[in-house]
């Protein structure tokens, strides 16, 4: 029997890479994002390349009702979700005061409200069936000291990492694995969407960048192994470890200057 993975933010970057990895491993897919044409192109590719059935469901996860509507559509269409991959996300780097409050609300809805609501809606079925996977795409930023400029992004990801760890513990023994994936800089549309591509490319060297395919493969292996959290790459693991060795105020001063380096604040 084929399993089905629902991936949010599957139209680009890490989400599209995860869809390709899951299809390659023999899963069917439910692809969720706003841009229908990209999702439909990807669905066709997954069918041709891997024989996967891929269903496209467009949704704007900045709408707090979107997760409930998605769950209703799944039920109406008789679709079962064996793996939930909460991946959709974006950041705003121009500073807290320069960012429209609606954009702040959208960040929280897309990266926190939606993952939590979808988890609450879909995990009970997984527990009942004795099999499930939840992969929450967080960020290395969630493990690092705060940064000014993209002020809400790190805390949102910290929340997701800690909530994933709690869920991981709570679901032990149920057959449902829960993992937070914490990538460092990854080559996707992310920095084009937030307008920092040029600054981020010159501020951070090539060795700090990973491909979406690599990140997706690390995430897939980690949730299959039921690791509570994974950081792809030894360099990113080192970056996550350094601040823990420093007094908090010093770590904040040295490492939290990210937005300053990008000349954003
Ligand atoms: N790239 C990095 O350096 C990096 C590092 C660490 C963590 N991450 C995390 O990785 C995840 C994926 O990011 P990425 O790098 O792959 O970025 P990306 O290439 O910009 O892709 C973001 C995805 O999220 C979807 N999305 C954004 N807003 C949405 C909304 N309102 N409703 C539904 N879907 C929405 C986009 O789809 P539509 O536009 O079609 O809706 C797109 O598929 C994010 O959670 C991000 O925080 C990225």
Automatic annotation (TrEMBL):
SUPFAM superfamilies: NAD(P)-binding Rossmann-fold domains. Keywords: Oxidoreductase. Pfam families: adh_short. One of its GO terms (molecular function) is oxidoreductase activity. One of its GO terms (cellular component) is membrane. It comes from the Bacteria. Belongs to the short-chain dehydrogenases/reductases (SDR) family. This is SDR family oxidoreductase. It comes from Brevundimonas goettingensis.
